[in-house]
Design a protein that fits this description.
This is Sensor histidine kinase. By secondary structure, the protein is of the alpha/beta class. The protein is built from 10 helices and 12 strands.
Length: 322
């Protein structure tokens, strides 16, 4: 495809600024025969339908709360759509307003990382993505939006964004803060020779003493299997599994981490971008991408002291500790 991938931020303060950037973007896509999709809330959908008139019938409107449900799954689904359109010689044109409200700080950080990483993942698809950011959002969210989008929209024009930084640099900054140490009540198991059957039974027994839903437990078991296998193959002993429940920051979660004494190379990728087939099984890349698909939040720290991969799965509601 001859089209070049674009990823633009649309900062707006009021209806006129929103429509002034969104309508030309969508109109250009309809005129070019693109697959045009809008992901937003009900209010913006009504505004766009009124502004587009009959052309709105050719636009796919999707509810933002449903679409922006899980960072890695949303990235994977959207990338699949973009690649499918590219294979047909067409372009995916997406206007998507991320959902920032009612998310905790850790989840906000992961969605900001996705905004950065899609500049790598979509690079060869020819997709056109525009992300509206309302002036009423927290200043930190708006500032991050300018760092994760190569271009800024001003009316019908787009200009290079001087605040944009390299996606991998942005992602590394997301991981600068050390992880809080496990609580004293965390369940701990040293894994000498992984027997995956008994390991899964051990995790199941602990998890069933918490409010973790059954569907999330099944995802956790697959994820833990991937992490322990990866630590055994590519890490260094000791391998330690820890589990606990946590209500920090108002985000009740089942927490599970696997640590080892190994250090990942700088190009490990951290499972943030879907691996090519030739990469599957190397440096844990395929496994970590699968783990990110399975779990709500995946935090990774690696350095001279070793590597920790920490999973956080949402709980229906708990108090601090557990």
């Amino acid at each position: 495809m001859s089209a070049t991938f674009t990823h633009r931020v649309l900062p707006y303060d009021g209806v006129n600024e929103f429509l002034g950037g969104a309508v030309p973007f969508l109109g250009d896509g309809l005129a070019a025969g693109d697959r045009v999709q809008v992901v937003c809330g009900v209010g913006l959908e009504h505004l766009l339908r009124d502004a587009l008139g009959r052309d709105a019938e050719r636009v796919e409107f999707t509810d933002a709360a449903r679409w922006y449900a899980h960072p890695t799954r949303t990235l994977a689904d959207c990338l699949s759509d973009a690649e499918a359109m590219d294979g047909e010689g067409r372009r995916l044109r997406l206007l998507g307003e991320p959902v920032w409200a009612r998310r905790g700080p850790l989840e906000v950080l992961e969605w900001q990382r996705v905004e950065a990483i899609l500049n790598v993942a979509f690079r060869e698809t020819g997709a056109a993505i525009m992300c509206p950011y309302a002036a009423t959002l927290p200043p930190g969210v708006v500032a991050a939006g300018r760092r994760t989008h190569p271009e800024t929209v001003r009316g019908a024009r787009s200009v290079p964004n001087p605040g944009y930084i390299d996606p991998w640099t942005f992602s590394a900054r997301c991981d600068l803060e050390p992880l809080p140490p496990p609580p004293v009540h965390a369940d701990e198991l040293k894994v000498d020779r992984p027997d995956l059957y008994w390991l899964r039974a051990y995790v199941t027994d602990y998890a069933r003493r918490t409010p973790l839903p059954g569907e999330e437990l099944q995802r956790l078991l697959v994820a833990v299997t991937e992490l322990v296998t990866n630590a055994e193959r590519h890490g260094a002993p000791p391998i330690v599994l820890r589990m606990w429940t946590d209500g920090a920051g108002g985000e009740p979660a089942f927490v599970c981490e696997v640590s080892d004494a190994g250090r990942w190379p700088p190009d490990a990728g951290f499972g943030l971008v879907p691996p090519r087939r030739a990469e599957a099984g190397t440096c844990g890349r395929f496994g970590l991408w699968a783990v990110r698909l399975l779990c709500t939040l995946v935090q990774i720290r690696t350095g001279p002291a070793g590597t920790v991969v920490r999973l956080r799965l949402p709980l229906p509601g708990i108090g601090d500790g557990g």
